[in-house]
Each structure stands twice: as structure tokens, then as C-alpha cells.
Amino acid sequence: MSIFFILFFLLHLSTSQLDDCTSAPCSKHGPTIRFPFRLKDNQPPHCGFPGFDLSCSPNTAATLLNLPYSVQVIVTNIDYKSQLIHIKGSNSCLLNLSTTPFQFADSVYNFSLFSCPSTIPVESFEGPWWSTPAACLSGDGQEVYVKSSGMSICYLPQLISCRKMYNVWSVPYDAFDQTADLQLTWPQPVCGNCEAEGKFCGFMSNSTSGEIECFGNLNPPKKGTPFSSFPFVCMLKSEKVKRKFAYPK
Ligand SMILES: *[C@@H]1O[C@H](CO)[C@@H](O)[C@H](O)[C@H]1NC(C)=O
Ligand SMILES: *[C@@H]1O[C@H](CO)[C@@H](O)[C@H](O)[C@H]1NC(C)=O
Ligand SMILES: *[C@@H]1O[C@H](CO)[C@@H](O)[C@H](O)[C@H]1NC(C)=O
């Protein structure tokens, strides 16, 4: 009996160490982290899909998504079934997703940015053609206003003392508001179907080019006594270990 328990714990310990693709969330209520995401400091590359690197903020325990050009956003929620994440608080003034696996989930529009003297009352820029002033671009006595491309500047006389900065294509209305809750989707990899079936998603163990497959069970039956869970745990672990060694890329 006692030998059995020692064996069980030894085995459990050793397989837990090999099973390096499970990760705790950054905080108690932080989003669950699993494929296609990975915690880049704790998990090897095969645990996540390229471009889905997360990290935990050392100060706030927020879950951070690391995008190219040192852009970081806070991930507040991950909906694995719908392949949708909620983000906010970008450290970049304007989120450019062109080199990321993500797309804006909300409708996108084209905008022009204008830099105007802050002496012009904010009220002049209210109405359907204006989005939030871009606080992070403003300063030095200038206020940056964002105009949707739907209206000719000829009909907007308040712009006469403003300077046109540049155009921005295909972003949602809230893209200039760092406090807004933005939603991003990812078209690839398609893991939503695995999630809907209650399975994990991951790289195919015999894949040579990063194909993915569904496996295992996201919600294993409740743990019984060690006697009943023992064979189950072993089966599950050995499958993951196999997977790990079979995908060394
Ligand atoms: C934004 O501009 C691009 C290129 O000029 C154009 O193809 C697209 O249709 C525009 N989108 C909207 C919503 O106006
Ligand atoms: C994003 O960056 C790419 C180049 O890296 C550029 O071509 C594109 O216009 C940018 N998009 C926006 C919305 O600024
Ligand atoms: C991997 O194995 C599965 C069955 O085990 C097979 O259907 C699939 O075609 C294989 N893929 C590659 C890339 O060999």
C-alpha cells in the first residue's frame, strides 16, 4: 500500500516536470493560458503558436501580450472557443496589427489625424465624424483629433488652423483610446473546434510543418481516489510526453 503511494507520487512528480506545457495564469483571476498562447518565459516554443507570446507583468500580475516592435497590451480575457481576446492599455499610441496574427473584431474604418491648437474648444470636434482625441499623441499645446474618412474636410471649417498629420487605415473607432476594451480575433490557428469539443489543441505530434490537432480532455472527470485516477493520469501524461518529444522543432 505505502509503496504504491510512494510510486504514485514519484511518478506524478517526474511526469509533472516533463509536462512543461501547462501553466498557471498570471494571477488568480487572470485568463487561463494554453495553446495557441504560451508564457514565453516559462514555456518552450512548442507550447504556443508563433506570435502568441504572453508574459506576466512583474508589478501588476497583469497578463501581457507581446507584439512586434516592443508593443505590449494587457489581455483581460481569452475566449478560446470563439478565438477572441479582450485587450486594453496598449503601450503604443496606435495599435498596428499588420505584423501580428491578430485582427480587430470590431468594424474598421479609415481615419485622418489632425493636430490642432488646444485653444480650439473640444466641442468643435464633437459629432459623427470625430473619434476620441488621441490623448497619447497630444501635448505641447496641440491636441490631436481623429476624423473618419467619410467626410470631406471642406465641410469641417474648425480644421482651418489644424495641421494634417497622417492617415490610418482599417482600425476601429476605439483604436485611439488606450483605455478602451478592444477585441481581437485570430484566424489561425483554428483551435475553436477543439475547444468546442472539450479538447486541447496543439501541434500534431508527427507534424513537420506545424499542423495542429485536438487531443485529450479539457475537463477531465473529477479526481477520485488515487486508485481510480492513477491509470488515467498516466495515460494523459504519457500522451503529452510523447507529444513533447515528437515535436522538437
Ligand atoms: C480604407 O481605405 C482603403 C484604401 O484606400 C480602401 O480600400 C477601404 O475600402 C477603405 N475602408 C473604408 C471603411 O472606407
Ligand atoms: C502598419 O504598419 C505597416 C508597416 O509596418 C504599414 O504599411 C501600415 O500602413 C500600418 N498600418 C496602420 C494602420 O498604421
Ligand atoms: C500524422 O498522423 C495522423 C494519424 O496518426 C495522420 O492522419 C496524419 O496524416 C499524419 N500527418 C503527417 C504530417 O504525417
UniProtKB/TrEMBL annotation:
GO CC entries: membrane
Signal peptide: 1-16
InterPro entries listed in its UniProt record: ATL20-22-like, WAK_GUB
Main location: membrane
Pfam families reported for this sequence: GUB_WAK_bind
Domain Wall-associated receptor kinase galacturonan-binding intervals: 21-87
Entry GO MF terms: polysaccharide binding; ubiquitin protein ligase activity; zinc ion binding
Keywords: Membrane, Metal-binding, Signal, Transferase, Transmembrane, Transmembrane helix, Ubl conjugation pathway, Zinc, Zinc-finger
Family, as annotated: Belongs to the RING-type zinc finger family. ATL subfamily.
Protein name: RING-type E3 ubiquitin transferase
